[in-house]
Design brief:
This is Type II secretory pathway, pseudopilin PulG. Keywords: Membrane, Transmembrane, Transmembrane helix. The protein is of the alpha+beta class. It has a domain of about 110 residues: minor pseudopilin epsh domain (minor pseudopilin epsh fold). It has a 5-stranded antiparallel β-sheet with strand order 3-2-1-6-7, with helices on one face. α1 packs antiparallel against α2.
Length: about 160
């Protein structure tokens, strides 16, 4: 942020540091993930909402990796009554009401997310490091309707299938 000085002297210009900007991005990610978690406890299962929660948890872990934080992963669990997302030391749960969550790596075969969990981690550049380094991951949430989410090898998250 500049101090309004118009002298053109480089020493008079102030700005935000990279660390400050990364902290703000992480805080926004945490707040958005918490906000989605609050809504899920009050409503019936929605594949769209589950996709959004998965996306938020993934982005939170990626932002932590970019900041050099050890919370650089999200663990996704499909339990008998709920879907769980562990990211940044927080657990977000969503009643699944008969819906299922599956994933595949780089165009392979879809597999159900196990109850023990699927760990998705990121390297210090924000790229996918696990379960398969620098490979696309696709998630499919099926129930009354079906939604797909792509986590590209570079860490971009978007709805639909990976291109």
């Amino acid at each position: 942020m500049t101090n309004g000085a118009s002298s053109g002297d480089p020493a008079s210009i102030k700005g935000f540091t990279l660390v400050e900007l990364v902290i703000v991005i992480i805080l926004i990610g945490v707040l958005s993930a918490l906000g989605i978690g609050l809504f899920t406890t009050r409503s019936a299962f929605s594949p769209l909402l589950a996709t959004q929660q998965l996306s938020s948890a993934t982005l939170l872990a990626q932002q932590a990796a970019l900041a050099g934080n050890t919370s650089n992963r999200v663990v996704i669990r499909q339990l008998p009554g709920e879907l769980q997302f562990d990211a940044g030391g927080n657990t977000f749960a969503l009643a699944r009401e008969g819906a299922s969550l599956s994933y595949r790596v780089s165009g392979g075969v879809f597999s159900a997310v196990p109850a023990v969990g699927l760990t998705v981690s990121f390297d210090d550049m924000g790229r996918v490091a696990a379960p398969a380094a620098r490979e696309n991951l696709e998630f499919r949430i099926s129930g009354a309707s079906q939604f797909e989410l792509c986590l590209s090898s570079l860490g971009a998250v978007y709805p639909g299938v990976c291109q």
